[in-house]
Structures are given as structure tokens and as C-alpha cells.
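Q&A log
Question type: sequence-to-structure
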Amino acid sequence: MPGKFGNLIGAIDEGTSSARFILFRAESTEIVASYQKSVTNIFPCEGWYEQDPMEIINVVRECIEKTVEKLIELGGHPSDIKAVGITNQRESTIVWDPESGQPLYNCIIWSDIRTTSTVDYLLDKVPNKTRNKNYLKPLCGLPLSTYFSAVKLKWLLDNAQTVQAYVRDGKQIMFGTIDTWIMWNLTDQMHVTDVTNASRTMLMNLETLEWDPILKKFFDIPSNIELPAIKSSSEIYGNIVDGALKGIPISGCLGDQQAALVGQGCMHLGDAKCTYGTGCFLLYCTGGNNVDSEHGLLTTVAYQLGDRFPVYALEGSVAVAGASLTWLKDNIELFESFSEIDALVKSVPDNGDVYFVPAFSGLFAPHWDSEARGIICGITEETQRGHIVRAALESVCFQVKDILDAMNLECGTPLSKLKVDGGMTNNNFLMQTQSDIIGLEVMKPAMVETTSLGAAMVAGNAVGLWNMDLKIEGNSRIYKPKISDDEREMRFTKWRMAIERSLGWDQN
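Response status: OK
Response body:
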């Protein structure tokens, strides 16, 4: 008999900066209870970005326990929770000892660029000395880049002494992305991943949805590295073995951007969404078509429901979105609190002809230039703090336009509107500017937790408690373009000039 809130579906959302656990009423956007906690960032060297895997799983456990406590306070019961889904920061890489369960190295986060020299080494392996970064793209959909998990794993094999000792001694090493690490720790050591996360490693064949021997050989993956079993995005992987959710199945898993795609209802050919957070990610659903991009976009798995055919997407990734504002606050000390941003933006009438390319660790789509570096152009003696903050926010919008233009070339059917989500969408100036820059309506849903919702949907689907064809109605805020085509083109021309100046900067 369902309890006070009916059947509930839980979503573990382990992002780059924090983890949270959210309880949704099944087949609705209603959040019954939630808890969120930040995860400590570790920056050992310039360009290196790590987190402690043990802290990650401990924070996840704490979020679960605190949320269930809130549920009980509200008159609910843990038995009301029928399934749990996982969504996670993608590409971030963990290796661990299967006997002790202890990590052999810190988690290397997706935006870490220590692997630049590893990428150079791998490019030298490309036949005929072409150094073609797209050499493996027909198999895995991805270019050779610091971004993806196999490159991080290769770095660990070549540089981490503990990992090297295990390989030398023939001892088994478990490899996984964040979803796999969470699943291993919460279940009876189930070593699994889903197709969306596997499609971001550079080791999975996009057609077979299996680990590809050619890819494993290219990255020199030794036999004692245990890769997780690849499953669909919506099936029962195992039951949670302890804590408040003991006995409840984990039955859904999606990388965070794919989860947002599902949560926004963008599940059919031609649907698209953009998520604004630390980075920025635009996904365009291509249905059952595995489209090989010719314009710098990634081919990825959008989702797979049980034994149904997989659904694919094209993706454009922006490395630095909200992170540029964090940099202005913490490194440049341009302001003390994010709450000051709105007043700074309003303190000036426009960007003062200032353009900011936040290529701190290179540029992702559609440029894929790891040697690009950040640049602020157009500064004069009249430039104020507000101009630079405006330029930082506008840089997000220009980068999204770069990707949208590539998607329109790729797909031939231009978007008529853009669905958006993520923490930065709370900034009205950013959303209005985005509409102005791309010349399209921008639709922001009333329920902003679309990433967690996507994970809950696929988990509920696997246990028969969520009909994926059910349209979840909700009000959206719509932003419409307010500038002329001429102004749009003039501003974008200046942006392209700034991009050209940032490319190829760090050639050492």
C-alpha cells in the first residue's frame, strides 16, 4: 500500500561541485525531499583537478541518509522509495583495489588537462604520421582529447606509481567512472556502467555497445584492468546493501547531460537541450541514427531503455561556463560573492566592446584546441568591473552559438527553440542574452532539477513505475530575442575575432 506520498523514486546526482539525493513522486516533477552537500576540490598543480573518491561516496551516503530523515519527518517512510537512479559527472576516472575497495589514486576530474602530453603521445601512434585527432572517431564517436576517460586511464598507467606496481605484479585493478564507483560501493560490489557513461570513455564501440578490442589495444589497456559490464540505462543492476535504503534496487543510470536530456523530455529526433553549469553542454537527439559529425561535435549515446534499441545524440561541450565566474571571484577577486553579479551587470549599459574567451584549459567543441588559452579583448581605460562580468556571461552564450551553428550544419534542420536547464539559468540576464545571441526562443522549465529527474525517470521505468511516454506538464519561462540581426552578427563577428586570438597560444 503506497504511503503518504505514494510511490517515490530516488535520484543520486553526483556532480562536479556537489552531490545530492532527491526523492520524486513517481511520474511527476514533485520533489518530496532532498539534501545536497559539496565535494572538496583538489588542485595539486596547474591544470590538474582531482577529488577524493572516498569523500565522494561518503558525501553520497550522507545525502541519502539526510534525505530519508527529512522524508520521515514529513510523515513518509523509507519503504515508499521503490527504486533509485544514478546520474553523474561524466569522464571523471577512478581506479581501485577490488579486495580492499580503496582507490589507487584520486579521481581525475573530466576537465583536468594533465593528459596533454598523453594526447601528444597517442597522436604519434596514429598510422601514417597524420596525427589525426579523429582517427578513433568512427569507432567511439570521440576525438583524441584530454577530456575522455581512456586518456586519463592511460596517464595513470604511465605515471601513477601505485597503479604501475599493481600492473607489474599482475594484481587486478578495477576501473570505472563515477557511476560505477557509486554502484560498486552501494551494492554488493556490482561492477557495472551504463551505455551513456561508457560512450564517454573512448573504449566503447558505438555500434556494438561493447568494449572494443581495437580501442583497448590503442590505449595499451593491460589485461589486469577490469572494465565494468556495460548495461542499458534502465534495468535493475543490484540492490543497496546497507543504510536507510537497504534492499532498494538501483535501476537507472545516465551520465548527467544525457539525464538532463531525458528530464527535459528531449527523447526524439530533433529535440535538443542545453545545460549551464561549471561547463555547458548542448545535446541534440538524433534518434536511432549514429551520426558521425564533420563539424567538431561528439557522437554519444543519449539513452537505452532495457533491451530496446539505443538512442543517439550529437553533443557540443563547453569546458568553461560558470567556472569563468568562479575564476573572476576567487582568482581575480573581482567580486566577493556571486550575489553581486546582477548589480555589476546592471552597472554598465553594455559590454563596453569587451570580449572574454575563457579557454583556461583549451577549447572544446567545435574547435577542439587544447593549446588555446584564455583571453580578454577590447579593454580600454574606460573598462569597468561590470564590463568584464558581462563579457564572462556573454562568453557562455557565444560558445553555445558556436555549437548551435555546427549542429545546424550537421543536421540540416535548424532548431526553432532551445530548452535550457542547470544552475546558471537562474540568471535572467544570461538567458535573455542567450536568446539574443542565437536568435531563438529560450525555454526554461519551472522545475530546474531536470538532471535528477532524468535519473529518476529511467529508474522508475525499470520497475514499472514510470511511463516514459507520459508528458510531464509544467510551466516554462520563455525568453525571446530583442536585438536585430545586424547587431547579432556584429557581436558574433567580434567574438570570432577573440576566438582567433586565443587559438594555439600554448604551443609548449
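Response note: The first strand starts at residue 8 and ends at 14.
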